[in-house]
Amino acid sequence: MHIVASQVGSGYYSDIATSIGALQVWPEHRYYATQHPFKPSDSTFVYLNIEQALVDQIEVVLHTQQTLGLSQSPVIAIGSSYTQLLLTLVLHASGQLAAWLRVRYPDVIAGAISSSPTLLGAPGLGLDPSYDPYGFAKIATRTASSEAGSAVACPTNVHKFFTTLFARAQTPEGLEQINTDLNLCRNSEVQSYRDVNATLAYYVLSNWVSAAQFNFPYALPGTGQTDVPAYPVREACNLLANDTLEGTPLFYAMGQALPIFTGNANISGGCLDTSAGGPSAFGYQICTQDYTPVSYDGVQDMFYDLPYNLDSNSQRCLQQYGVTPQYNWAASTFGLSS
Fold it and tell me: Which of 163, 190, 162, 185 is nearest to 175 (CA)?
């Protein structure tokens, strides 16, 4: 995980650790932020896998125990999602890493608290009943709803945006209107329905679901010119609060909302650059050992019909990273299958 100053010592688990006088350790995950096995930074991710990440965490624990004379102190690993340790010692790893640390290294890790991991969502587990692949989309939609403090009309307007987007993409005039109303940069302009379906629509969806995961009650450093505000989904939804939004005003509001999620990193020369990004550490891990099938339907959620497809995901991973996902990795490595 990438640690930022505002996170250290904050949150529920840190409050618990402080109350019992535990030492908190916040290690960064290899290939995230500035942590790379070699210098200069290795951009190929060749040494990025979960087995090595677990060993990194254990090395940090053992070094800390030896250096500070805490070899008899129990270690609790805690975290959420994929990417936090507690020495009574607390190790802040991640939700998935915390659980896997306890399974793989029970002699070092006395216990683990794993919050919102996707452990049971890995393919190949043979679960009955299976997990709900639409669950994540429902939660992301709830984050943008009045139930979570956002504007009442926000989910409806986000869904309306996607419906209008695909309708406009049917004609050359509609495509031109999309480029104009979203103020897309030249390198991001759509020229066909395929461009909209394969690139733009998924870009907008990805921004909203990512923001739902990082909808913290405090500001975070953005990757652009400004910080990401506290409760960024609420901030973005404020721009989509008018239930009469249609057409150009709706697209303009969406174009203003998206940069909130990145701290204006997707604004280039005053226009919206949807090509920003590229290969990333987490993207690589999704394409190797950490893929969780997620589906959207535009009925139970505010997005559009997009069921997961393992074949198309494998093709994308091979094209972008030159690797094929190990869909059964968790089941075969940790014996989690039934």
Answer: 190
* Between 78 and 145, the higher pLDDT residue: 145
Task: Express each pLDDT in 255-272 by its tens digit.
Answer: 999 999 988 766 777 899
Other CB atoms within 10 Å distance of the CB of residue 227:
15
Q: Report the Cα 117 to chain-centroid distance in Å.
A: 12
In this predicted structure, which of 112-116, 266-270, 330-334 has the lowest mean pLDDT?
266-270
Residues 6+ apart with CB under 8 A from 209: 136, 137, 140
Average pLDDT, the chain: 86
**What contacts 190, CB < 8 A, 6 or more positions away?**
169, 175, 178, 179, 184, 196, 199, 200
Asked if residues 317 and 323 have their Cβ atoms less than 8 Å apart, the reply is yes
Q: In angstroms, what CA-CA distances link 14 with 22, 72, 87, 139, 266?
A: 9, 21, 12, 25, 33
HEC letters along 118-169? CHHHCCCCCCCCCCCCCHHHHHHHHHCCHHHCCCCCHHHHHHHHHHHHHHHC
Q: How many whole angstroms separate alpha carbon 334 and alpha carbon 313?
A: 23
